[in-house]
Write a structure and sequence with these properties.
The protein is mainly α and 206 residues long. It contains 8 helices and 2 strands. The termini are far apart.
Length: 206
């Protein structure tokens, strides 16, 4: 069983959110702002989150098209998810980190999720939702990913039902994994793979 890591650069811990706190206003107020910062592999200076530019070589200059990830990338993410699930208590650790990253990206997340604190009973509802949606989405990954569009869209409804915003999923989960998985199991290639796969899934959830 692998133990989750908590990097010192992680801006908060579970204990830090035991009481209500003010979340600084972020410039990630909408998907358009986030898209404008997607410089491949660079870190956004306001959050230090790594953001990636999608490969649009096959998109025929259609900026709204999100290209499906290569099968090799899909398999890399599937293997990574199995590694994550071997971490002791990964559900709570990963959910906490994902929510913290979402708070950094959008100042309204706590109110959207109706989450007074991470130690509140509400956290367990939110945790179960984000992990179940993530696990469900990963379960669709494979050579026939495009065939599950309607099922993925249904997961989008489940995701939104608790107040989550789709555009936060890719960056927040990718960054949350960085604070959960040991560095040896989360290379830059895996990190970019997660972002690419999640970005594609989000495009099918809307």
């Amino acid at each position: 069983m692998t133990t989750a890591i908590h990097d010192a650069s992680s801006t908060s811990t579970l204990g830090d959110l035991a009481e209500p706190l003010e979340v600084k206003q972020s410039r990630f107020d909408n998907a358009e702002n986030l898209s404008g910062l997607m410089k491949n592999g660079e870190k956004d200076p306001s959050t230090q989150h790594t953001v990636f530019e999608e490969d649009d070589s096959d998109s025929d200059d259609d900026s709204d098209v999100v290209v499906a990830p290569d099968f090799e990338v899909v398999m890399l993410v599937l293997k990574s998810w199995e590694t994550v699930k071997c971490i002791d208590g990964y559900e709570e650790v990963l959910a906490e980190q994902i929510i913290l990253r979402m708070m950094e990206l959008d100042a309204h997340v706590r109110s959207d999720l109706n989450l007074p604190s991470i130690r509140s009973p509400r956290f367990h509802v939110v945790k179960d939702k984000i992990i179940s949606v993530l696990d469900g989405l990963v379960s669709f990954l494979g050579p026939d990913l495009e065939d599950f569009s309607s099922e993925i869209e249904d997961f989008g409804h489940h995701y939104r039902s608790e107040g989550f915003k789709e555009y936060l999923l890719s960056p927040a989960v990718t960054e949350g994994l960085k604070y959960t998985v040991p560095p040896k199991d989360f290379s830059p290639e895996i990190e970019k793979g997660w972002y690419s796969v999640l970005n594609f899934l989000v495009s099918k959830m809307i």
